[in-house]
Design goal:
7-stranded mixed beta sheet, two-stranded antiparallel ribbon, 9 strands, globular
């Protein structure tokens, strides 16, 4: 298994990025300012984009694992890698997500705790309703963990 930074042609991973953020123009807002990592285990299984949000906060902007490889620990490995790599330069790792019974428990198992909410984020910023596990995502839930 290898984790490596992708510096060029990040959009080659668009199909994977769209699993976590299904509107391409939203991805365009952070893909160039963020640092992208892929986890390769006999082929790319997972990706993560992180960005500096100031005040010692590093934010996961996008993290996704191909569906057939979910539940095998790949995303957790990427989060652990990011946490170790950036702990000298940042004090907090943050992620924003929808209030989904699939994603919130995953982040909590990775050591994140709820921090704050941006009301109506998904309804105000996406051109169509976003659903996960049959639930429409409305608010952005932010979770943080110290690194």
């Amino acid at each position: 298994m290898e984790i490596r930074e992708i510096k060029n042609n990040k959009k080659q991973y668009l199909s994977l990025l769209l699993l976590a953020d299904e509107q391409e123009d939203m991805i365009d807002r952070y893909i160039d300012k963020g640092t992208m990592y892929i986890l390769d285990d006999n082929g790319v299984k997972c990706e993560c984009v992180v960005a500096d949000e100031g005040n010692g906060i590093l934010e996961i902007k996008n993290i996704a694992t191909y569906p057939e490889f979910q539940g095998k620990g790949y995303a957790r490995k990427l989060i652990e890698y990011i946490s170790k790599k950036y702990k000298e330069n940042y004090s907090v790792l943050q992620v924003g997500t929808g209030d989904s019974p699939m994603t919130i428990p995953f982040y909590e198992k990775c050591g994140f705790v709820r921090s704050h909410i941006i009301p109506n984020f998904f309804t105000d910023n996406y051109d169509h309703p976003i659903f996960e596990c049959g639930i429409q995502l409305i608010d952005m839930i932010y979770l943080q963990k110290e690194i």
